[in-house]
Amino acid sequence: xxxxxxxxxxxxxxxxxxxxxxxxxxxxxxxxxxxxxxxxxxxxxxxxxxxxxxxxxxxxxxxxxxxxxxxxxxxxxxxxxxxxxxxxxxxxxxxxxxxxxxxxxxxxxxxxxxxxxxxxxxxxxxxxxxxxxxxxxxxxxxxxxxxxxxxxxxxxxxxxxxxxxxxxxxxxxxxxxxxxxxxxxxxxxxxxxxxxxxxxxxxxxxxxxxxxxxxxxxxxxxxxxxxxxxxxxxxxxxxxxxxxxxxxxxxxxxxxxxxxxxxxxxxxxxxxxxxxxxxxxxxxxxxxxxxxxxxxxxxxxxxxxxxxxxxxxxxxxxxxxxxxxxxxxxxxxxxxxxxxxxxxxxxxxxxxxxxxxxxxxxxxxxxxxxxxxxxxxxxxxxxxxxxxxxxxxxxxxxxxxxxxxxxxxxxxxxxxxxxxxxxxxxxxxxxxxxxxxxxxxxxxxxxxxxxxxxxxxxxxxxxxxxxxxxxxxxxxxxxxxxxxxxxxxxxxxxxxxxxxxxx
Length: 503
What we know:
By secondary structure, this protein is an alpha+beta fold. It has helices at residues 2-17, 111-128, 133-136, 141-166, 170-198, 208-217, 221-227, 229-250, 258-267, 274-289, 296-309, 313-327, 370-385, 400-411, 428-433, 463-473, 497-501; strands at residues 20-28, 35-40, 50-53, 59-65, 70-76, 79-85, 90-96, 105-108, 340-342, 347-348, 358-363, 390-395, 417-420, 442-446. Residues 3-16 and 481-503 have low confidence and may be disordered.
């Protein structure tokens, strides 16, 4: 009996600690060409946690590991909705595709918390629509502080009322209160920067009372830092004037990365704790410097900054992952060669094709405009380089049957290895090359020795890709010359000589 009880307790404990979220739903009128993704909203440089297909009836289902309880971005058809989720929940979503994200219904375990967010958002929008920010920033500082405290108290009361009405969890209520604090701090920053000009008083400086009020709203600094992107924006805006002065003095020849300068600036901020430095530097890295097309030299700089300056292991791991996803495997390294399958079920590896360099394309049937925009250009590229270059097209659809249909319909007539990554975006090849939905179609070169020969490209017409193709093949693709443009605007063109001479 005791053994049975222990087993039952262990099973219950495992379920209660599970981070997996089960998702299912239906968007009436949904298209199989659209995908649904969930992204953790409070992290740094976060990537989609799952990519779900929608069938012909608009239905979808799947599961993903939720890193923590909190806000998640749900994307569908290029539109975003915010949803509060907790690990172990079942999330049921329904609505009409045409009305997303303005209208949709959540049922299941996540219902009450998201009902709370919806209710409190309505009341806050109604309240803030009556505020005149332009008038607020012209007030005397003492009057402004009084107004801000009243705004905070009113909205805090509305949060409590909505939480009671919907029986929301204490966690989501606290999250909303932290968001309120961050929003109020943002309003105070706006006052501080706008008040001098609005009142023609350039000598204005925030008083101790102003700073004390800020400290009250920021008293839960660590929790807000970890959960509120708005709070990080506030901290960055507070640092911005000093950083601009620092950058002007230390930019040198102007080739330094934004994150490089900001990391040096943070070294001078002795009163700023390390976790805050990590979050703010990570924001600058992910929003400005870790981007498609980064040069190998700058990628190496970024890697050094992450390694030397970021101390929090979770933030460091997230940054390293997104840098890999954006840049791909390093040039010169052996190309990953996980198992792939052909339409007939036989195995294939990228390392099997070494007679020539290989251009690899990752794609799926639901890639926007791939049939119309990419494939015609791909045919031209394949026709020009086929004597010196092999082609491997890796499909990442959800099923092997879909791969067979897609490759036959889209790519027939192009001599290439048409293969499938089993399990699509969850396949080993997708993980090894850092492929996500937003990264398709994409292209990468592998040399005849099986080593990575280029960064990832997303456009077959990219001049750098043409240069790389020429380099590995020894061929030289014809360059398209830009046509000369005739100036035809009569307001800008000089009048004809004979006409001007008569005046």
